[in-house]
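User: Fold this, then the next.

Assistant: Folding the first:
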Amino acid sequence: MSPAAPTLPRAAGGPVLAALIRTTPEDFLVEELPAFEASGSGEHLLLTIEKRGINTAFAASRIAQWAGIGEVAIGYAGLKDRHAVTRQRFSVHLPRRIAPDLATLQEETSPDERLRVLHSTWHAKKLPRGALLGNRFVLVLREVRGERDAIEARLRAVAEQGVPNYFGQQRFGRDGANIAGALAMFAGRRMRREQRGMLLSAARSELFNRVLAARVSAGHWNQALDGEVWMLEGSRSVFGPEPFSDTLAQRLAGFDIHPTGPLWGRGELRSGAAVAELERLALSGETAGSLCAGLEKAGLAQERRSLRLRPGDLAWRWLDAAALELAFTLPAGTYATAVLAELGEVCDAARA
């Protein structure tokens, strides 16, 4: 089965719970952690929006209509799901610095959809994609089944050791359809520009998950192998391979550096020795070979991604005997589903 499926190996062992997530949007709260403070002046109105039942693209379209401008003039840092309550920033290019009444933007179109402006100010530049430090999550698991002591022990292990930094299922589409789409595109099928970007990302994510799954199964996803390439915590800067030393061991134990896996593209693998051999073996086979070749032909360059993810400020409390609230932060580009997967079988009620 493809590692895009929900059967990716867990680092901490078998499941300790079964539960439902997103039985209601309020059970999945996501708040962006901004990467910068607004300048307070400029031609871009910076809005902090709370939305329910609305995805980012739909919200951007509504804001553009409200402002009477094209959607290209709307900026946002990241994509947020519809089946959630989310707080994120949007920039609106208004060269004349004249904004329509904010109250008209907040009019509800249905009981299930809500858009509220929490804050507004001016800024000098359009909000670019990726301009966020990360996201803060407050999630409620419902109908929890499992031993409370075992669940809390697993949560303590997650807080101390982190989790495998898998790409989440949303990268792969319903039933992993994006991988089939990527293979068809690489075989010659023409795709729209926005589809092409999505499928290239899915192909890269699938290959990375295969490498990470192999290392999790072998028990060394968070350890040093010969030929390791390291990534600095809180950045995308990498270094190595270099001989393992006491200094590197201390930095690894302190979560200052992390082992990495490949984001496939043109060029030679940066890893060496045992790591390069493992990565080539994990990416052998017809499907992986086709994905690798397609990414190379598309012109993407070799990059690396951390194999390890540790949620920040992880806390939990029981709302009742079968409802567990989790709160934590994650850096940009990582997935709350990777944290939930280490606990057990968590079914997404909204997607089901």
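Now the next one, as you asked:
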Amino acid sequence: MSENGSLSPADVERLLTDRSAENRAKTVEKIAGNLVANEFSDKERAEAEEIFRVLASDAEILVRQTLADTLKNLPDLSHDIAVSLASDIADVATPMLTFSEALSDQDLFDIISSKPESHQAAIAERSVVSEAVSEKLADTGNKTVVAKLMENEGAQISEETFEKVLDEFGDDELVNAPMAKRSELPITVTERLVTLVSDKLKEHLVSHHEMSPAMATDLILASREKTMVGLLGYASSGELERLINQLYDNGRLTPTIILRALCVGDMDFFETALSKGSDIAVSNVHLLVNDASGQGLKQLCKKCKIPQGVAEMMRVAVDVVNELEYDGDPGDRERFRNHVIQRVLTHFEDRFDAENVDYLISKIAEHDSNSTEAA
């Protein structure tokens, strides 16, 4: 390089005639470095890029690798040079595929479709991966690539792509572990993950949803049903309906999970679940649930095949929830739940641990079972 950093004839001569790959690589690094640092005039930049076009086909891997590694962070690199380097062997292509902003989604689509796992994995590690590219990577069916995609917080992944990945790799910890650790997940995906991951990974799901330590303990120790109620408060209205449909389709929309939701004041879930189970519009379910005679809720529970003991618990809990008027504040959820359970237990004149809703439900289930046997 000349003293002022400009591109000199000697640099060009050295690149074109020096037989040493190491020397040419050093010269490439200097010229490319000055291009990245924007130290060239427009004319010198054009000359440098013409040289790079030649070097992108250099027989020596070291020269091409040095070129790619030095130019990987240049966002306005000429498109043809970026594509040429990104389509090279893995040692050359990886820096470009992982870092270069000069590559379009279409470029990445083409490389995913035509290149091996090494190239696909490099794309999965980009700082930003669009939903379309994520879907294309998931479609490869390559577990290693998909796992890297799940590990990448910069990857934008649609709910449909998450579902597709769970269908294919849900039981594989290499994939479901990094998925569980993502900072954001659709509630329907979280619901499926809870049934697939280990207790250790469930802890990550809890942390992701910023639940209280008490709820985190519940998730680790309790059943799948209790896990889902812990997640309900974080579902949007649109997600709620999808979640209930998914629970119903998978046979998980049980009387106990509906009762638990009610005990934490989630009337939206309670009424939407009864609507799904009875095939009655939510607006009509709301009227039946609030029927002063109690017959509306009784008939709903019967249609949903909810055991009599649990149905009676629901009737009392509905009255208490309406009376207390829970405002949905997550910080007040535990206190509200305890109030509901205490009032319900008082109604049944029995001595239960007011904080242990599982014990309460097991007692009711046991009572139903004994009643059935006696009959």
